[in-house]
């Protein structure tokens, strides 16, 4: 969920931030035009984008507030929202072999 609205996202450890295309940002009601205009490097090359804080981002039981996101100034790319590393940046990661034995 993004700011209380449902959004499906792909976890992308190669992405710096949570990233939306322009159409998805509009559907979610994000005022991305008020964000800071930036240039981003994507798998498809360089693109114009807007950097903005999200009030909240929730994935399952995990709720984070004031998370950085970017909106690429393109109606269809990326195809799906990307949950980049600004989302799990403050998580503590552990691994257990018990899960896979």
Tags for this model:
101 residues, mainly beta, Cathepsin D, subunit A, domain 1, four-stranded mixed β-sheet, two-stranded parallel sheet, 1 helix, 6% helix
Give the helices and strands, then pairings.
Blueprint: E1 10-11, E2 18-21, H1 22-27, E3 36-42, E4 45-59, E5 62-72, E6 82-83
Would you give an account of this structure?
By secondary structure, the protein is mainly β. It has a single domain, classed as Cathepsin D, subunit A, domain 1 (Beta Barrel), CATH 2.40.70. The protein is 6% helix and 41% strand. It contains 1 helix and 6 strands, in the order ββαββββ. The strands form 2 sheets. The protein has a 4-stranded mixed beta sheet. A two-stranded parallel sheet has the order 1-6. The longest helix is centred in the first third of the chain and has 6 residues. The relative contact order is 0.30. The mean pLDDT is 86.
CATH architecture: Beta Barrel
CATH superfamily label: Acid Proteases
Question: Ranges with pLDDT <50 over ≥5 residues?
Answer: none
Taking the alpha carbons of the first and last residues, their distance comes to 33 Å
Q: How many runs of DSSP E, i.e. beta strands?
A: 6
Mean pLDDT: 86
- Going by helix content, strand content and strand pairing, the class is mainly beta
Fraction in beta strands: 35-45%
Largest sheet data: 4 strands, mixed
Order of helices and strands: EEHEEEE
Give the C-level CATH assignment. Mainly Beta
Total number of domains:
1
Helix segment tally: 1
Radius of gyration based on Cα positions? 14 Å
The best one-word shape is globular
């Amino acid at each position: 969920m993004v700011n209380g609205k449902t959004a499906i996202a792909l976890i992308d450890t190669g992405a710096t931030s949570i990233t939306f295309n322009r159409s998805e940002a509009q559907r979610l009601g994000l005022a991305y035009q008020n964000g800071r205009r930036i240039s981003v490097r994507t798998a498809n090359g360089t693109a114009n984008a807007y950097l903005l804080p999200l009030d909240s981002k929730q994935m399952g039981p995990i709720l984070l507030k004031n998370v950085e996101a970017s909106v690429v100034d393109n109606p269809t790319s990326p195809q799906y929202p990307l949950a980049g590393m600004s989302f799990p940046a403050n998580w503590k990661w552990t691994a257990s072999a018990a899960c896979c034995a």
